[in-house]
């Protein structure tokens, strides 16, 4: 290649015999002129044509002499340049105390900037000269090294605090390396080539030294030491956090202490001390290996409440340890990160705490137990046990377990990745569904009893569960798009219609399972009647024993299943009703010409069919439920349009239907909320939300607000549009998707706005 | 009058293009990014010139693109950068540049055109969405400035609407 040939000419005449450059400055050869001279022969056209160099490489590449990309060009102040870690800053004891307090305070607040505000390590914690110095020196010796300024506050207290902070950072690094959250996106761990205490295994060592420093500060008996003492106590709590991963501790004592210390520090704004000038700088980006463009330091706000958020979110994760059933675990996973994105440490911890290193769930259940429980909690032991225990099912259940683990992991992802995770899962659930159905059908066909026969044919409980999970994933993927503002108003019809269609499919599946459970319950009850009628004493005794056995072993779980299925049906009915309301409001707006389901964009390159098919691409390969065609969407909307004659009465009918659906949704929401409040042992429904009661209630409150907003929107639409069509209306109004206060982001409102004032949507 | 030309045989404009784009983009791009696009796909970079300006040979706008086989299955055009000098904005120059680039990529057999843009960049979103692009996904904290991005796609053929896994490869052989 020309390029290689040209690079080949770029050799150094001054290099040493073994090819390495001597580190002594006097032996270095100035090649600047030679370099530029040889560079003249390079042809620009031959550069960057290597197939291995892609756009990712390009956008991550740095450039010498480009001030935006070359961190060696960073200019430091003279104080930053001259800053030495060998000297204790501060002329008096009090000044030195203030400086050390200031440094530790900044480092603590930088942790919040780093983790809560997604900043980088070099612009926060690593911008501290002491952190850089101590990590460098310690890693050379592979043991904790200390400053030697002659002042104990620096040489001991500051060092102990820094090692505590770095030990916590090491824990965060471990979470990141586990691959649950994404580097740069969720968390930046640009360590600048520094080793974050990989040689320190012993948490106790760090804690003991922190405690000795706390004792030392206490011994100073100075009122100015209070703030620093609390800072050190806060760091102790941070060091202890690794126990939730190391020994899977669900004990929240240290988290409660962390909250307490953070609240105390938050209130001590008046104790703020400045760190010594030059102590924090961009210097590390200039001095050490830097793969990123130069970035200015963050100015830390008074952000101690950030630790409270982290601790509370970790506590929410640890609640899963109290799950009394897989349903409760799954509901915790569903709700804990649903409405508000949780702290990155909590999100990273969740799957690792839930699925342990040995692949045991919460340390209690094997993967098989886990999937078995999921299945039986959905469709009862009596309906699924025979199938589950069949050897043919083992590989299928193994696959189900893998997908379920992925499902749990996805729940902790950031809000955007969450939707993408479902996109990937759709294929997995669909493949599993086909596999499960085939296997289960085979097993059911071989069964002699009437166990699995229903009015509509063979009942396949495990496949029903997979189908339910698949359709739930599809609905979640569709509606999450509204939350992320992925759809334009013209797409609202298709997405809500599809969500309605999926909810309908889901409802049919759940009704079938519900029916089977109910028939099981009824058959046990009918056994009681048979006993009464039975004249033969021996047969009567046998029947009584059978009845007792079924009542003792099956009835309770069947009743629980029934109540859980009732909850799922009721939840599904809310989604179905609200989706239908949105569809109907869209149809009214389209009938009046203020919105269309066709794009208003130029069609020179594409068309509406392609746009819809692209939008539905994630579902294009799904076997069941079958993807609706472009024509099916068109026909559905056409059927709903309000046309002449008798527009007014047709409009009234549509509005009535919306009100009825809203009313259905509100009734279902109220029932579910009552049952969440009453608990699973005291209500009509089993919701499994005991551990996430607050979040679940908030979720349903938001749906309630959406339903109310849709109802109100009926009145707004009719007030603005009137009850008869007019050609000028379409010029007056436009439609945007808006989220009313406290309403669900999954069901934005089709809001009519004045087109002259608001031409741009969103 | 605004004149549009492809970059091909006009590599002398490299520095002007870099200046034009560096002035606006939030992401600092190295020389290698420009070289990557311009050296490999010079025919997919289009420049706009003001023939009535005193510096009529200096581009006042540009779009920089590439096209590649995506996962071995689909030809994907990609709009990497688009910039118009601030005093020339609001005259439809960006739209014309993008249109020219898409036309070229379409002719070259692309199944779809893809790009990313900041969620907050309403002007860019309007421009692309008015040309038929739709938002496929949102990407959390995608840019160095910590902003989210939307990935936008304009489907040109039916192949754009099928999951890559289920597409025949470009030679017509289905691996499934």
TrEMBL record, chain A:
It is found in: Cytoplasm. Residues 45-205 form the NAA35-like N-terminal domain. The keyword Cytoplasm applies. Keywords: Cytoplasm. Its main location: cytoplasm. Residues 321-672 form the NAA35-like TPR repeats domain. Belongs to the MAK10 family. One of its GO terms (cellular component) is NatC complex. This is Mak10-domain-containing protein. The lineage of its organism: Eukaryota, Fungi, Dikarya, Ascomycota, Saccharomycotina.
TrEMBL record, chain B:
Gene3D superfamilies: 3.40.630.30. GO terms for molecular function: protein-N-terminal amino-acid acetyltransferase activity. Pfam families: Acetyltransf_1. Residues 2-157 form the N-acetyltransferase domain. The keyword Ribosomal protein does not apply. One of its GO terms (cellular component) is NatC complex. Keywords: Acyltransferase, Transferase. Transmembrane segments: none annotated. Belongs to the acetyltransferase family. MAK3 subfamily. This is N-acetyltransferase domain-containing protein. It comes from Torulaspora globosa.
């Amino acid at each position: 290649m020309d390029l290689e040939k040209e690079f080949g000419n770029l050799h150094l005449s001054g290099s040493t015999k073994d090819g390495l450059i001597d580190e002594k400055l006097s032996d270095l050869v100035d090649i600047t002129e030679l370099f530029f001279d040889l560079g003249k022969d390079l042809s620009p056209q031959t550069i960057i044509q290597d197939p291995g160099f892609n756009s990712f490489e390009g956008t991550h590449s740095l450039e010498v002499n480009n001030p935006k990309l070359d961190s060696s060009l960073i200019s430091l102040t003279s104080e930053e340049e001259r800053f030495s870690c060998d000297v204790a800053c501060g002329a008096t004891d009090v000044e030195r105390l203030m400086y050390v307090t200031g440094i530790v305070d900044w480092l603590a607040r930088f942790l919040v900037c780093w983790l809560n505000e997604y900043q980088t390590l070099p612009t926060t914690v690593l911008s501290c000269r002491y952190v850089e110095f101590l990590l460098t020196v310690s890693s050379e010796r592979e043991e904790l090294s200390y400053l030697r300024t002659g002042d104990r506050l620096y040489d001991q207290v500051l060092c102990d605090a820094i090692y505590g902070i770095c030990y916590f950072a090491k824990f965060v690094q471990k979470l990141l390396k586990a691959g649950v959250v994404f580097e740069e996106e969720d968390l930046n761990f640009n360590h600048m080539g520094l080793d974050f205490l990989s040689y320190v295994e012993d948490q106790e060592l760090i804690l003991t030294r922190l405690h000795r420093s706390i004792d030392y500060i206490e011994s100073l008996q100075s009122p100015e030491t209070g703030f620093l003492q609390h800072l050190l106590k806060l760091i102790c709590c941070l060091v202890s956090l690794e126990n939730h991963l190391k020994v899977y501790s669900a004990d929240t004592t240290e988290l409660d202490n962390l909250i307490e210390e953070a609240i105390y520090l938050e209130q001590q704004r008046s104790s703020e001390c400045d760190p010594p000038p030059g102590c924090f700088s961009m210097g590390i980006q200039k001095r050490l290996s830097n793969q990123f463009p130069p970035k200015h330091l963050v100015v830390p706000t008074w952000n101690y409440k950030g630790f409270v958020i982290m601790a509370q979110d970790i506590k929410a994760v640890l609640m899963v340890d109290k799950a009394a059933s897989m349903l409760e675990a799954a509901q915790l996973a569903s709700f804990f990160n649903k409405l508000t994105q949780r702290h990155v440490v909590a999100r990273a911890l969740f799957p690792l705490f839930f699925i342990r290193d040995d692949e045991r769930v919460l340390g209690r259940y094997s993967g098989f137990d886990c999937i078995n429980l999921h299945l039986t909690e959905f469709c009862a032991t009596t309906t699924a046990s025979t199938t589950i225990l069949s050897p043919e099912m083992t590989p299928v259940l193994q696959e189900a377990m893998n997908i379920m683990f992925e499902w749990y992991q996805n729940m902790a992802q950031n809000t955007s990745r969450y939707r993408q995770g479902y996109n990937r899962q759709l294929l997995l659930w669909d493949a599993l569904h086909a596999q499960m159905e085939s296997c289960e059908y085979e097993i059911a066909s071989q069964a002699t009893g009437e166990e699995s026969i229903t009015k509509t044919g063979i009942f396949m409980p495990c496949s029903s569960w997979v189908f339910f999970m698949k359709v739930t994933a599809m609905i979640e993927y569709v509606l999450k798009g509204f939350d992320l503002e992925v759809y334009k108003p013209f797409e609202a019809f298709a997405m809500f219609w599809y969500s309605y269609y999926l909810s309908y499919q889901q409802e049919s599946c759940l009704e079938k399972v519900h029916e089977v459970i109910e028939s099981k319950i009824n058959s046990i009850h009918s056994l009681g009647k048979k006993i009464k009628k039975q004249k033969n004493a021996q047969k009567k005794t046998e029947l009584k024993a059978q009845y007792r056995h079924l009542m003792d072993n099956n009835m309770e779980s069947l009743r629980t299943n029934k109540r859980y299925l009732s909850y799922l049906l009721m939840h599904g009915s809310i989604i179905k009703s609200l989706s239908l309301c949105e569809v109907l409001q869209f149809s009214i707006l389209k009938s009046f010409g203020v919105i269309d389901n066709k794009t208003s964009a130029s069609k020179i390159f594409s068309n509406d069919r392609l746009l819809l098919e692209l939008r539905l691409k994630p579902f294009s390969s799904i076997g069941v439920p079958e993807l609706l065609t472009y024509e099916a969407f068109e026909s559905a909307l056409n059927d709903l349009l309000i046309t002449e004659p008798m527009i007014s009465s047709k409009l009234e009918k549509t509005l009535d239907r919306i009100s009825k659906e809203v009313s259905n949704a509100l009734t279902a929401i109220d029932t579910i909320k009552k049952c969440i409040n009453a608990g699973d042992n005291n209500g009509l429904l089993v919701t499994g939300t005991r551990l996430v009661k607050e979040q679940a209630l908030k979720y349903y409150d938001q749906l309630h607000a959406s339903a109310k907003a849709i109802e109100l929107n009926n009145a707004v639409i009719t007030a603005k549009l009137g009850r008869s069509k007019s050609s000028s209306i379409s010029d007056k109004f436009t439609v945007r998707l808006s989220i009313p206060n406290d309403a669900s982001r999954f069901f934005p409102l089709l809001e009519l706005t004045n087109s002259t004032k608001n031409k741009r949507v969103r | 009058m605004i004149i549009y030309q492809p970059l091909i045989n006009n590599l002398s404009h490299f520095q002007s293009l870099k200046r034009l784009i560096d002035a606006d983009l939030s992401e600092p791009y190295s020389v290698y990014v420009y070289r990557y696009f311009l050296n490999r796909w010079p025919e997919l970079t289009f420049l706009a010139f003001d023939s009535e300006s005193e510096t009529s040979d200096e581009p006042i706008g540009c779009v920089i693109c590439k096209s590649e086989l995506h996962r071995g299955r689909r030809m994907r055009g990609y709009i990497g950068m688009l910039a118009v000098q601030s005093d020339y904005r609001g005259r439809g120059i960006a739209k014309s540049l993008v249109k020219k680039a898409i036309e070229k990529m379409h002719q070259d057999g692309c199944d779809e055109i893809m790009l990313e843009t900041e969620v907050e960049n309403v002007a860019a979103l309007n421009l692309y969405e008015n040309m038929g692009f739709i938002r496929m996904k949102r990407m959390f904290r995608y840019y160095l400035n910590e902003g989210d991005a939307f990935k936008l796609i304009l489907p040109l053929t039916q192949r754009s609407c099928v999951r890559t896994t289920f597409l025949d490869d470009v030679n017509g052989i289905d691996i499934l």
